[in-house]
Structure formats: structure tokens, C-alpha cells
Specification:
The chain has helices at residues 2-18, 26-67, 127-132, 157-162, 178-182, 191-200, 204-208, 227-241, 257-271, 306-312, 315-323, and strands at 88-98, 101-112, 116-121, 142-147, 150-151, 164-167, 245-249, 275-279, 291-296, 299-304. With 326 residues, it is α/β, with parallel strands linked by helices. A six-stranded mixed sheet has the order 6-7-8-3-9-10. The chain has a four-stranded antiparallel sheet with strand order 2-1-4-5, with no helix packed on it. Strand 7 (245-249), helix 9 and strand 8 (275-279) form a beta-alpha-beta unit. The structure holds adenosine-5'-triphosphate and magnesium ion (MG).
């Protein structure tokens, strides 16, 4: 439009000046045209800046939504530091609600140091919700959750979370390199340590096949990886952190049988001498747990070792029979 306007002024103005219809000489007219030409670009910038401002306001709105999101779990500023896990994790009459819906009720559970407790139950029973209470992703609605006899709300959140590693049901990954994703939260991890952790998690082989190896970017939430690869990265992260308490929520659910066996071996190694809470649908992976807790609709309906639960001939036995684990 700028150029068309310029041509029109040049044509019509030139016609007027050349035919001396107006009191303007040729030189002034050229000067006038020069000035007009110079103004076209700034005028264009001005109009695009309006649309940029619109984009900016929209973006700021979305960022503010995140920044102003309410903090549901309060950090206890004067909280105690917990540097080592000494005794046990205790759930005392724990209940949990999402808004008004009761998800967990009357949970009484003790996880002794060095023991493995498995949570089983149908989908939606509240297993992940129960496990998420330990790192305080949510706070209990009633009852108490104690570690070494002290309510976890009295600990500093940072030191509490330092004690645990979680392999979540949905891998939490960031748009960054593989190495950085494995080393999340461990600022001074060396590449050799990251590689060792990846080897244990059976991830090293697929990583070195990527074009940039450990420096490959994995896309938003790890979208450039397969489900099993994502899962192995989060297992490697847990291996690298090497914490006293482990929470594994369906850690091997996206792996094929062969990799599952390899990763399960690695996980078993990782779990020895450690306190773990394991959630699994595939019951063969948890049959050696020290205690198996069966949840149904947010309540514990059965508990005991594999053999004692089989002997009880209840819900667990039914699940086992369906999976033909003998
Ligand atoms: N953010 C949320 N808001 C409201 N309800 C939720 C929320 N997250 C989970 N729930 C509900 O809480 C219940 C328990 O969910 P949870 O994720 O603990 O189940 P789960 O036992 O881990 O199941 P699965 O085996 O499928 O992973 C479900 O009924 C679910 O619909
Ligand atoms: Mg779950």
C-alpha cells in the first residue's frame, strides 16, 4: 500500500508540478517525496507494534496464571532439616479429599526402614494418591503422616524431598538434553555418573544411538522418546540420586517383557537395603514385598505377605488368579 500510495503521489504530483498547476517547484517536490518515502517504514513498524503488544498481553496473561497459582503445599520456613532416614514412615488414620470427594479413608500403614511395601488394587483405588502424600505433592486432609515420629509438615520441604526418589506413573521430563533430565536436581553430577546410572536403568544403549547421545534434546515432556524410553530416563534419575526412600509408581509398565526383566533386576538391586513403596499392576514384580497392601475405593481391604494373602483367598487371590502368577 505504501508503494502504491507513493506511486500515486509521484504520478499525480508530478503531473501537477510539471504542468505548473501548483506553486511548487520540481526540487521541493522531490524533497517532499523523499520525506514521504522515509516515513513509510516507521509507519509500518508502528502498526506491527500494536499487534505485537496484543500478543504480549496474551502471553503475559498465561504466564501470570502460572506465577499466581496458589501454593497448595506450604514450605515450613522454620522446618526441621531431616538429613537421614532412621526408622519408619507411618500413616496414622490418614484421609484425603480432592475438594469434596473422599479419595482415601482410614489409612493406617507403617513402612519400616529397609522394607518394601507394595500397593495393589484396581485402577482409581487411590494408590498413586497415597504414594504422592509422602513427598507432599498433596497434604493429608485428616490424620497424620509421620517420618521417624515427626509429622512431615514439620520438616523443611526441601530436606524431606531430598530423602526420596520417585518414579511417577507419568514420567516428568523437561524440554532439555537427556543428560540434564537424568541429572535433574543434582547440580554437580558428572557425565560418567550419569552414564553409569543410565546403564543400570538399561537406558544407555538407546541413548548412544541418538544422534547427539546424552546431549540430544528430548522435546516437550520427552515427546521425542517412546514411552519405555521415557520411563527408563526417570529410573536412571532415581538411580543417580540414590536416596534412602524410593517410590515406584508403575515404574516398568511401558516396557516390553525383555526390558522389563532387565529393568526390574536393576530396580531390585536398587531396592535392596532401601525403603520402598512400590505400586504395580503386574503382581509378579511385587510378590517378594515385605507387605502387600490391597486398596479398594481408598480403603485398605487386605494386607499381608504374598503367601498369607493367597491363603486368605480374597481380592488379592482373585487378582493373582487372573494374572496366573504362580
Ligand atoms: N486432581 C484430581 N482431582 C480430583 N480427583 C482426582 C485427581 N486425581 C485423581 N483423582 C481421583 O482420585 C482417585 C484415585 O486416583 P489415583 O491416581 O490415586 O488412582 P490409582 O489407584 O493410582 O489408579 P491407577 O492404577 O489407574 O494408577 C480416582 O478416582 C481419581 O479419579
Ligand atoms: Mg496410579
Amino acid at each position: 500500500m505504501g508503494i502504491m500510495l507513493f506511486c500515486a503521489i509521484l504520478g499525480y504530483g508530478g503531473y501537477l508540478v510539471l504542468n505548473q498547476r501548483i506553486a511548487l517547484d520540481g526540487a521541493s517536490f522531490l524533497g517532499y517525496l523523499g520525506l514521504f518515502y522515509m516515513i513509510i517504514n516507521p509507519a509500518k513498524t508502528l502498526s506491527t507494534s500494536f499487534s505485537n503488544m496484543q500478543k504480549g498481553t496474551a502471553a503475559i496473561g498465561r504466564i501470570e496464571e502460572v506465577l499466581k497459582a496458589p501454593v497448595v503445599v506450604d514450605e515450613n520456613i522454620n522446618g526441621k532439616q531431616i538429613d537421614a532416614f532412621a526408622g519408619k514412615i507411618e500413616f496414622k488414620n490418614v484421609g484425603f479429599k480432592y475438594e469434596d470427594v473422599e479419595i482415601l479413608k482410614n489409612i493406617n500403614l507403617t513402612v519400616e526402614k529397609g522394607k518394601t511395601v507394595a500397593l495393589v488394587g484396581s485402577s482409581g483405588a487411590g494408590k498413586s494418591t497415597l504414594a504422592d502424600l509422602v513427598p507432599r505433592f498433596h497434604d493429608v486432609s485428616s490424620g497424620e503422616l509421620l517420618i521417624d515420629g515427626i509429622n512431615i509438615k514439620d520438616y523443611s520441604l526441601h530436606s524431606l524431598r531430598n530423602l526420596l526418589s520417585i518414579v511417577t506413573q507419568e514420567p516428568i521430563l523437561f524440554n532439555d538434553t537427556i543428560a540434564n533430565n537424568i541429572a535433574l536436581g543434582m547440580r554437580d553430577a558428572k557425565l560418567s555418573e550419569i552414564e553409569d546410572a543410565a546403564k543400570i536403568a538399561n537406558a544407555h544403549n538407546f541413548i548412544i544411538q541418538k544422534e547427539d547421545g546424552y546431549q540430544s534434546n528430548i522435546g516437550d515432556r520427552g515427546s521425542k522418546l517412546s514411552g519405555g524410553e521415557r520411563q527408563r530416563l526417570t529410573i536412571a534419575r532415581a538411580v543417580l540420586k540414590n536416596p534412602p526412600i524410593l517410590i515406584l509408581d508403575e515404574a516398568t509398565s511401558s516396557l516390553d517383557t525383555e526390558s522389563e526383566r532387565l529393568v526390574q533386576d536393576a530396580i531390585n538391586n536398587l531396592m535392596s537395603n532401601r525403603t520402598s513403596i512400590v505400586i504395580a499392576h503386574r503382581l509378579s514384580t511385587i510378590r517378594h514385598a515385605d507387605e502387600i497392601v490391597v486398596l479398594q475405593n481408598g480403603e485398605i481391604v487386605e494386607r499381608g505377605t504374598h503367601d498369607s494373602l493367597i491363603a486368605q483367598n480374597g481380592f488379592y487371590k482373585k487378582l493373582v488368579d487372573m494374572q496366573e502368577v504362580r
